[in-house]
Amino acid sequence: MQPESTAHTSRPRRPRLRLGGLGPLIGLAAVVALATILNPSFLTLGNIFNVLTRTSFIGVIAVGGTFVIIAGGIDLSVGSMAALLAGSMILFMNALSPTFGSGWLTIALGVVFVVVLGGLFGLGHGLAITKGRIEPFIVTLGTLGIFRSVLTYLSEGGAITLKLDVSDVYSHVYYGSLLGVPIPIWVFLAMAALGGLLLNRTAYGRHVQAIGSNEQVARFAALRVDREKILTYVIQGVCVAVATILYVPRLGSASPSTGLLWELEAIAAVIIGGTALKGGFGTVSGTVVGAILLSTIGNVLNLTSIISVYLNAAVQGVVIILVAFLQRGRRTQ
Amino acid sequence: MISIRFEGIGKDFGAGPVLDDVGFSVEAGEIHALVGENGAGKSTLMKILGGYLVASSGRVLLNGAPSHFRDQREAEAEGVVLIHQELNLVDDLTVADNIFLGREQRRGPFLDERAMRQEAAALLDRVGLDVDPTTRVRELIVAQKQLLEIAKALGRQARLMIMDEPTASLTPSEVERLFELIRDLNGRGVTILYISHKLAEVVALAHRVTVLRDGKYVTTVAAEQTTREQLANLMVGREIAAMFPEKRLQDAGDVLWRVHDVSVAGWAENVSFDLRRGEILGFAGLVGAGRTELFEGILGLRRRIDGHFELDGHGLRLRHPADAVGAGIVYLSEDRKGKGLHTTLRLAPNLTLMALRRYADPLLRPDRERRALERAVRDYNIRASSLDAIAGTLSGGNQQKLALAKVLHTEPRILILDEPTRGVDVGAKQEIYTLIQQLASRGLGIIVVSSELIELIGIAHRLVVMRGGRVTGRLDGDALNEPEIIAYATGVKGSHAA
Question: What ipTM did this prediction achieve?
Answer without folding.
Answer: 0.83
